[in-house]
Amino acid sequence: MLETFKDYVSNKHDVLYKIVLILFCVSVVVYTFPNVVKFKYSYNKDKPWEHEDLIAPFDFGINKTDKEIKVEQDELSKNIKPYFKADNSVYRRVLKNFSKVFDKEAAVQMIKPGEKKYQQNKEFCLRILNEIYGKGILETTPQLDNKPGEYTIYIVNKNIADEVALKQVFTIVTAFDFIRENIKNTPQVQGVLVLKVFENLLQQNILFDPATTTKVQKEQFDNISLSRDMKQKGERIIGRGEIVNYEKYKILESLKAESIAQSGSTSNQYIILGGQFVLVLLSVLILILFLYLFRKTMLAENRVMIFLLLNIVLTAFMFAIAVKFKIANIYILPFCIFPILVRSFFDTRVAMFLHLVNTLIIGLVAPNPFEFIFIEIIAGFFAVFSVMDLHHRSQLFVTVGIIFFTYCLTYISYSVMLEGSFNNMDWRTIQWFGISAVSVLFVYPAIFIFEKLFGFISEVTLMELSDINTPLLRLLALKAPGTFQHSLQVANLAEEAIFAIGGSGLLVRTGALYHDIGKMEMPMYFIENQQQGVNPHNELSFEDSAAIITGHVAKGIEIAKNNKLPDQLIDFIRTHHGTTKAQYFYQSFLKNFPDEEIDVSVFQYPGPIPFSKETAVLMMSDSVEAASRSLKHYDAESLEKIVDRVIDSQIAQNQFANSDITFKDITIIKHIFKKKLSNIYHLRIEYPQ
C-alpha cells in the first residue's frame, strides 16, 4: 500500500506541486484579509431601501457620528482641570543656599554680620521665604492664560491631589508683589538687599504635570458614550422603498458596526475564514481552468504558475497594507500594474483573466464591492488593450492617460446613475485615480525585475535586442556581412509567416537576427561570406568541413551566453538546424567513399529539434532562404519547388514533432514563403524581344 502511494506521488508529483502552490497562494491571500463579517445589505444615502423590511435582530445603540463625538471631546477639553506636581525638594535647596546668597548680597550693601540690621534683614527674608513656600510658587502655562483667581487646578503632593484656586498660590510675579508689599510695611529692612536676595533664590516648586493631565483627559474621553438612543430587538428599522435619509443612514451604520462586532467569536472566525478560503479558491480556479483549456503550455511550466499566483498574492498584500495603514481611499492603489505586467510577458487574454480574478478576490473585502469591481475591471481591460504592443517606454505615458480617463469616466457615470446629479459626488476620488494611474509607471522597473527573477522576456527587451545597431549585431555585420544579410532576410520571412499562423512576430524576428552569430568565429567557411571564389573547404576533409559547419551552433550558444542573451533567444540558435545533417558534405562523403563506414554523428547538427511555433518557423525560413540562394535561375516554378522540397524534407525527418504546428499552418507558411521569395527576386513576366 505504501509503495503504491509512493509510486502515485512519484508519477503525479508535478500535479501535486501545482495543487500545493494553489493552496498556498489561497491561504496567503486569505491570511491577509480582515476576517470579519460583512454586512449583507447594501444601501446608499438618500436612495430607496431596496431590500425587504429590516427588523432589528438584537438590541443595539445608535452610534454618534465622529463630529458629535468631537464636539463632546472639545467641550471636555475646555473643562478638564490641569494637574501640577509639588516638588518639595525645591524649598530644601532654597533654604540650603539662603545663607550663602544673603551673605553675598549683604557684603555688596556694606552690611556686616553682627550688625543689628544684618540680623533684622535676615530674619525678615526667612519669614517671607517661609510664607511664600508655605503656599508654593506655581509654574505658569498656556492653560492658565487669562484664568481668574477663582479658577481651580489640581496639585499632587505625595500622591494626593488637592483642588486649589489660583489665588491660593503664588506665581513668580505675585511672589515679588508680596515681597514689595511687606518691604513697604517694614521700614527697618533694606529693600534693595531683600529684593536681590529673592531674585537669586526664588524657584517654582509647583510644576505642570502633562502626563497626568493627558491621562485624566484620555480617561474622560474613554468614558464618553459612543451611542445615543437604543433600538430594541424586533423593532422595525426601515421598510422596502423608504428613503435612506440621514437618520436612517446612521441607524443602519450602527447596526452594521454592531453586527461586525458580534462576529468576533472564535467559531465565527473559523466560519468566516472557511467562506473566504472557498471563494478565493474558486476565483483562482477560474484562472487555472482557463489555462487548462486554452493555455496548456503555460499551465505546464511551474515558473509561469508561480509568476501568475505571485501577482495574485502581491495584489492582496497591497490591499492589506493599505487597510492596515488606513489610506485615504482604495482607488489610490495601482491595481492596473498587474495586468500590464502579465501582458508584458504573455498574451492579452491571460492578462485580462488575471485582472478579473484579482478584482473578484479584492471585491470580497473591498467597500462598495460592486462599484469597485465594475470600475477596476473596466480600467484594467482598457489598460491591457493599451499595451498590446508595448514596444517603447513612451507608450506607458499614453497608458497612464487612458487609465486615468477610464477611471474618471466610469466613476462619474456610475455616481450620476446612483445620485441622479453631480452635487453629491465625491470629487476628491478623482485625485486618487490620478495617483493610481501615475503609479502604473512603476511597471517598467517591475518588468525588468521579473525578467531577471523568472527568466521571461518582454516585448520591450525584444525591441531593444532587435535593433541592428546593438554591439553584437554590428559585430556580426562587420565580421560576417553575408551572414548578416541572410539573417535579415530570414527575419523578414519568419516574421511574415508567424503573423499568419499566430505567434510572437517580435520574438521570431529577434531570434532570426541572432540565430547564426556562431558564424562570426570562422566566417569564410560559410558560402554567403566567401568572396572571389575562394573556398577554404577545398583544403579540408569532408568530416572536418562538416564539423566546422555544424559547430557554428555551439559557437553561437557560447557567444550568446557570453553576451547575456535571454534563454528564449538562445533556443533559436540551438534549434534552427534541429537534428538535420550538413547534407552537402554528407552526400559528398557517401559519393566519394561508398565503401567506407560512416559516422553519421559527425555530419549531424546537435539539436534539439524545434519545440514551438516560433522556432519551427525560423528553421523553415532559414533553410528555405539559404536554399533559394543556390538556384541558378529564378522563376515561380523553381521557387515553389525548392520551398516544397526543403520543408517536406524537414517534415520527413520529424523535425516538427515537438512543435505545436499543424499541416494547415505549414501550408500557409509555404504559400507565404513562395510569395515573399518571388518579391525578393523580383520575378516578372518575360517581355517579348
Molecular structure report:
With 689 residues, this protein is mostly helical. It has three domains: 2-35 and 266-454, no CATH class; 77-219, no CATH class; 459-680, Hypothetical protein af1432 (Orthogonal Bundle), CATH 1.10.3210. The chain contains 29 helices and eight strands. The strands form three sheets. It has a four-stranded mixed sheet. A two-stranded antiparallel sheet has the order 1-8. Strands 2-7 form a two-stranded antiparallel ribbon. The radius of gyration is 44 Å and the shape is elongated.
Give the proportion of residues in helices: 55-70%
Instruction: Tell me the radius of gyration.
Output: 44 Å
Strand content: under 5%
What count of helical segments does DSSP give?
29
Extract low-pLDDT stretches. 683-689
- The total domain count is 3
What's the overall average pLDDT, rounded?
87
> Major sheet: size, sense and barrel closure?
4 strands, mixed
Query: Based on the structure, what is the oligomeric state of the protein chains?
Result: single chain
Silhouette: elongated
Terminal CA distance:
89 Å
Strand line-up across the major sheet? 5-4-3-6
Structural class: mainly alpha
- Strand element count: 8
Task: Report a brief summary of the structure.
The chain is mainly alpha-helical and 689 residues long.
